Amino acid sequence: MRIARFSIDGNVAFGAVEGGSAPGAEGDLVLDIIKGIPYTDFELSGTKVPLSKVRLLPPVLPNKVVAIGRNYAEHAAELGNEVPEVPVAFFKPTTSVIGSGDAIEYPSFSNELHHEAELAVVIGRMCREVPRERVKDVVFGYTCANDVTARDAQRREKQWARAKGFDTSCPLGPWVETDLDPGDLAIQCTVNGEQRQLGRTSDMVRSVEDLVVHISEAMTLLPGDVILTGTPAGVGPLNVGDEVAVTIEGIGTLTNKVIKRG
After folding, report:
1. Domains delineated in the chain
2. pLDDT score at 25
3. pTM summary value
4. How confident is the model over 179-215, as pLDDT tens digits?
């Protein structure tokens, strides 16, 4: 099931996305409004609105976004890094999260903004120290993400808080797909229609199960929390006016335009 978060007439709601998932079929999609929130057992209201009549919001409002760096060997190599012995984790703040169609604001402290297409894992229940065999029980679903990075600040500052945590640096969307095997999905990034990244989640050094186990050893994960699983090779520059799109097989396409901050 595809579950979206949206606003209409000043109200915010969740809805089940119904209709074809083929490219170009978005105009035929409708949302069946969910009663309550989707992390527990929920009912569909039967009240339906066309997707074209609503504004899509970030599909979740995470308490935290835990991101993983250098989880694709070719991406680590393209930036001159080795694959780390243990997963490299960092946080992106909630203020960095935006939805599909929202603008990425080019930060004033950077001259080298990069796209990073990623599979995002959405947690569905509070959990800690999750055993591998129970990872599927705590995952709500998956969505597309763009770990937008101020690459020059990342190199200069060593710590990644500003380089990867600035406002609008974490686009998520367009919705969450709850029925999906993340083991071998095509992941693509285009800029102004030109392909920049193309990889498969099967190339990840550490799997979704590995990452959930590793992260939950250290911290409690809450419903709506997001784990970013790393990006394949091909990262590159974004400029003001560019339109960047992340497409993941079985989920959909997350699209954002880059604008000047201010």
Report:
1. 2-56 (2.30.30.370), 65-260 (3.90.850.10)
2. 54
3. 0.95
4. 999 999 999 999 999 999 999 999 999 999 999 999 9
